[in-house]
Amino acid sequence: MSFKRFWALxxxxxxxxxxxxxxxxxxxxxxxxxxxxxAFAFSGPGLxxxxxxxxxxxxxxxxxxxxxxxxxxFLPVVDLPSALTKVERHQLDMVIxxxxxxxxxNEESPQGYVLDRVLRSASTDPAVxxxxxxxxRLIRYVDWVLPGVLAMNMxxxxxxxxxxxxxxxxxxxxxxxxxATPLTPLEFLSAQLASRLWLILGSTVLVFAGTxxxxxxxxxxxxxxxxxxxxxxxxxxxxxxxxxxxxxxxEEFAAGLLNVMSWPMTFLSGVWFxxxxxxxxxxxxxxxxxxxxxxxxxxxxxxxxxxxxxxxxHLLALAAMSAIAMGLGVWLFRWD
Length: 336
Fold this sequence. Notes:
This protein is α/β, with parallel strands linked by helices. The chain has helices at 3-19, 21-41, 60-63, 80-88, 110-122, 141-171, 174-179, 185-215, 223-245, 251-268, 280-286, 290-304, 312-332; strands at residues 50-55, 72-76, 94-97, 102-104, 130-132.
């Protein structure tokens, strides 16, 4: 091995990376912006581990130190039935009625079990609060999180399977050769999306069937409605990947842009935890992400048995996002 040749290649690659201003900027700015975003999302006196809905006002004489417990966020509740539905769906860990001395937890929720013990140990008179049964179907956490995991896996396949591949075609000269043919940008991009769509939907169906065979999660809605949600959601996500790849020439820069899209959506679209209690601005901003609408619609179909009319708002949002991103991608696309 020649150290001289090794050093020449080493220095050449370093200069190539430094001169690629777009890649260098994303390697520096992306982690800083990600940290700043999470600092804003979870700003406050401490990290919130539990969410408790409060019906009425907190009375220290009956609750003891419970309402002073750290890492619990107490959210005001006005409508008790909707709050109990959130307990069933793991969006709230507990609902407590201070006026009537009663509380509700989901028996399938580990957070609910911990809060039950904390409340009883913190109350001056444990007999004051009576534990109530949550009416309706109890949903396990794995049942609640599964639609989000399926959508997240689809998101990465859509964004990187379309955006990164087209950039690689441009970099190795494939697009330049295709430009010499009668092929139009719309034909090329439509073929790319159609090819990726059936692959993603096929793999999602296989994952869905395999996990259902092992976990036996509930499916109370229509399989056709769920398929429509995932098909339209995949189209919107692939359109975003296409928008990134429309003019990008650097694979490193494309990877940075795709990460900027994917990771905030992963954490702020309700994949792993409910958005109840996070900053209101982020709750509204999450509605601009396709992944949020995919997850909300899929959970509504699978857990609540929602029909086409109930999820039509999410489908319209996904269709609009697909049309806008696809139109901009075709308009901005260039072969070289």
